[in-house]
Amino acid sequence: MVLRKYNGMQNEMPQTFSSMLDRFFNESVNTRGFTGFTPHVDACETDNGYEIEVALPGIRKEDIAIDFQEGKLTISGERRFEKKEEGRRYQMLETQYGTFSRSFYLPDNVNPDKISAQLQDGVLMVSVPKDEHKTMKRQITISGGEEEAKQPAKQKRMAASATENGKEK
After folding, report:
1. Handedness of CA 21, 27, 28, 29 (dihedral sign)
2. Is the distance from CB of 50 to CB of 106 less than 8 angstroms?
3. Distances, alpha carbon 94 to alpha carbons 60, 99, 132, 147, 156, in Å
4. Alpha-carbon distance 64 to 54, whole Å?
5. Pair 46, 76: CB distance under 8 Å
């Protein structure tokens, strides 16, 4: 009979590095629940706007919602597990299922009325154009100076009201 010192960890510790890796990956993958997932996103800015690409393989467009409110673009939806077949037991299931929601805060120079989205080959492409009026460069004239300072206040008011009415006096 061989005596071994018992420290309570023999059953917990793998005997080899390979078995430790196998145990780590099997437990982390197989114990994952169907609570939700986070789709991968690529976002970029162009001269004309912003483009957001979301990887959503296996999701129908009816299961996706896109909202824009107060500068926040939210893409949400659900990927359902629908592979219930008799006689099959999954040994490994790495695909994530459940609800998702991704939000993006956009600058105030976007035009929310022209946001468009297209789902093709499992990739959702959202285009958010910039508002041309807000991004256009303008030259601003500076008023004031010595000549205006010398005019009496009444003349300034009369000139301002005449300019607003489209008449010059």
Report:
1. positive
2. yes
3. 20, 16, 45, 76, 75
4. 11
5. no
pTM of the model: 0.58
- Alpha-carbon distance of 130 to 148, in angstroms, equals 39
What is the tens place of the pLDDT at every residue in 114-167?
999 999 999 999 999 998 877 667 788 888 876 555 556 556 666 555 555 554
Name the token pair of 33: 């629940």
CB 69 within 8 A of CB 79: no
pLDDT digits (tens, 9 = 90+) for 62-75: 999 999 999 899 99
Strands (E), the chain: 41-45, 49-55, 64-69, 72-79, 98-105, 116-120, 123-129
**Chain-centre distance of CA 59, in angstroms?**
17
What is the 8-class DSSP label of residue 121? T
| Six token digits for residue 107 | 């600058």
- b/e burial code for range 147-156 (CB count within 10 A of at least 16 → b): eeeeeeeeee
